[in-house]
Protein 1
Amino acid sequence: MCETCGCGEALNHFHPDHEHLHDHPHDHADHDHDGHFHGEHSHDGHTHFHPPPVRTVRVENDLLAFNHALAEANRLWLKRQHVYAINLISSPGSGKTLLLEKTLQRLQGRIATAVIVGDLQTDLDAQRLQGFGARVKQIETVNACHLDAERVSQVLPGVINEETRLLFIENVGNLVCPAAFDLGEAERVVLLSTPEGEDKPLKYPIPFRKASLVLVTKTDLIPHLTFQRDRCMEALRRVNPAASIIEMSALTGDGMDAWIRHLEQAIRQVG
Amino acid sequence: MHELSIALALVEQVRRIAEKESATRIVSIRLRVGALSGVDAEALSFCFPMAARESMAEGAQLIIDSEPLRWLCLACQQLFTLDNNQPDQLCPHCGAPDHHLTGSDDLILESVEMS
């Protein structure tokens, strides 16, 4: 019997939801209509195919749902371990690794700290960060332009131990892609180095928009640059009026106290 | 640069939805991409056919509804767009100089047309 209309008769008929004539009884076990794919059913002992209807399914799913779910899992795991995680995002060469060297020096013996470093290739950054008492793990992303929650979740258990209270995730140097990927961090910090120019937040608004703290780094270079501090502050305020700003130079130590205070306050949140 | 990973995630998500719906072919896919999502619609459209190759989404049409970057005037609370993102421009509604960047970071799979 035809499942569409229920007929068992040997006659020509037309099904409104598929556009071909059935000639019953006939032999069309391997017939070909118009090249589209047919759902199989049976008419009086012979088999033929109806085209599945085209339909639209409403979804409204976040495309990065997989990453977000893993990021939430990381965040929960870190919270249970009493670890405050910071995702550091900036252009390549803005001073993330020097900042971490100086930060680890200051925290050594006081706050147990771990670092995950993302780079396309080499473990040079991880080598630089050895010797300050922190557990350091390099992720080589090879061609990937950003870290994602899955990669971070794979290395978390190896880099965090019971004492760890603070985790820095030094993201791949890139102001575009890392902004889209939540890693499960408690806080996102973006670095803007003075040689990059004061209008960078306007040209690359997304990472600044999503940061709770912006570090304006390499302030010791300002005398050698055309960097206009007021315009920089104005650009940051326009893009993200809620972000805190610390102006600093990891090299000279200017502004480091404010940064360290920020970290000390932050880890109090996680007990 | 990360649009290929997004396109691969999209194809995988669409495949799972189609399987649940017992569909075998994807006709079109509609996305909503916010200006602050970090995704370039053109790059995503370029990557999509590669990500969809040899999947049931091969040959499917990708429709992207882009949501623009907007500025919110702090004086009159009106939203407006600026040509070339020039920050020194004045609000076209009231002429005030102070405005903040707004926009969504949505990256949403809205609907899938399948058969």
Note: The first strand of chain B starts at residue 26 and ends at 34.
Protein 2
Amino acid sequence: MNRLATTLPDSLARPSRLDPLGTLLTLAGALALLLLPFVIFKANRILPGDPRSLTAVLPAWGALAVAAPLVLAALVAVLVANAGLRLAAALLGIVAVALAAAAAANALTPVGNHVVRVGAGPAFWVLFVVLGLMATDAITRLRPRPGLRVLYLAVALGVTALALRHGTFDNLSVMREYAVNAARFAQEARRHLELALGSLAAAVIVGLPLGVVCHRAPGARSAVLGTLNVIQTIPAIALFGILMAPLGALAAAFPWIAELGIRGIGAAPAAVALFLYSLLPITANTVAGLRRVSRAAVDAARGMGMTDGQVLAQVELPLALPVILTGIRVVLVQNIGMVTVAALIGGGGLGTFVFQGIGQTAIDLVLLGAIPIVVLAFSAAVLLDALVELMDRGRA
Amino acid sequence: MITVEGLSKRYGTATVVDGVSMAVPRNAISIIVGTSGSGKSTLLRMINRLVEPTSGRVLIDGTDTRAQPAYLLRRRIGYVIQGHGLFPHRTVAENIATVPRLLGWEAGRIRARVAELLQVFQLDPAAYADAFPHQLSGGQQQRVGVARALAAEPALLLMDEPFGALDPIIRAKAQEDLLEIQRRFGTTILLVTHDMDEAFRLGSHVAVMSSGRLLQFDRPAVLLTRPADPLVARMTGASDRALKLLSLTTAGEAAVPGVCDGPQLAASASLREVLSELLWRGAAAATIVGDDGTLRGHLTVAAILARARP
């Protein structure tokens, strides 16, 4: 009785609970900003970097202009529960951090100098990740409909593209690397997508019928899925190596195959390896999707006079589609990442920049390859998640 | 008329249906009843060839069902299963339109038929045509399942435990509706159930199956009064067979001319219900009136009891 009387008003008096995630993110961001360098200055591309803090680079009013939105974001993160406000504050913070990096690069680069390199430092990346987490957390709480999520993505990508085209970030080191490699970048990006999407398409063309066969003939199921499972366990590099010998021998024995561009190294073994990796998720998800289809619906379909083909096309595949699409999503995101490794055997793609950058210890070149890969994989995941959810709607 | 001749189904050494022969009457409801594992569902599924017989044959209006491909045969036969089997990714209207579409009906005719069936099954087209099955109640789903089976106006309707998943009150309503539908369209219906009460309520003829064999196929009253096999007597319920017999006759059918001062009861009530009501009220006789209020005669307890004997 006594305890109740003392604790009740106390808990009522408390205005609102501190947001645990927001508090953690704020602490991490604040510590990073205070203790870690915001940008790294290099006199040229391969010299060791010279860390600079934000206040050392920007004039006082500039630092204040960056700090104000960040403080606002921190306050919202800790105190405000409204997800819409949290998202707005996080996005404001991200824009502020990005513009601060651009401003720092402009401030540190003498006009007309193309040798100096100014790259984003640890504090920038920590803030970027912290604010990104705050934004994704807010979007998760908002539960936007699939179409809206795709719109968010399109707006974010569109704004970024406009800023890049406008030259906002031209003095940042990654964009310096881009300026040098612009022609090759477009070519390698296209090759990257071709490899990822092409092997996915081939895997769907083969894996979908294979899944249907496995569903219809349970005897084949364990053999097929077992084989694909084994392939899945082979590391990517090892699989490239294994494919080198037979493809090389094939090209040597039949010159017309070599003329098609199929050799032991290059894009061919990469495409074959990605195709093989893609088969398991597609086939296994097709089997799982078909098994999920209600037996009563299939029985009714047959009982009303649908042919086997009609049952498959009109009942089984449409009902299995959300699960099959989930498999396609897994494969697409996995492929976009795995194509990177294809650069090792001359397969091309954005991984070329990553491995060149590693070879030259030029971290900016690595980022020129890595950042677009992450953006591609993330966008593919958002798009296909939305598609899966749309397909699954109305048929729970 | 469906004629079943020496129909058997064997899986390996197990005989599921064993030499069944029967002639199913046209334009009436016939019931196949039996315990689980008696082969009743397999027998039904052999008629539309979802299961191919090991031996024997099925004739529909004199034509062997194997004279055409199985899927073409099935498009002429309505089929309803337990748990309705509606397509979850298609709307109610699309579900009902399934067989007409397979048959290549033109769009206008399909629309008109779907609207007609929704009316018949008491589903407002404006509210339900574009709904998905999961948005309906269990009873509504079951009605859509029957409407879908009747869409292409089949002369024969096969039903495999169609009301098995319904609760008792909705089930009774669904049974009433089925009788009404049968009267309206004159469809020949063959229905499988394990529920003897359901069989007696719906069937003009009832087939009793056990261990793959057909024990007896006759009118319900004959099953009660002259069971062909001790098992038939046991399955129809020997302990209350007198009351079951009374439940097969309506008061209107049994009433004799004349009046009495007893309570007024409906002609559509069964003798069993009339007897129960008279016992409850301590009355010796009842006046029987039709739905329109006209006098149909009277019934005494003694007259009812006389009908409870074979």
Note: The CA atoms of residues 193 and 227 of chain B lie 19 Å apart.
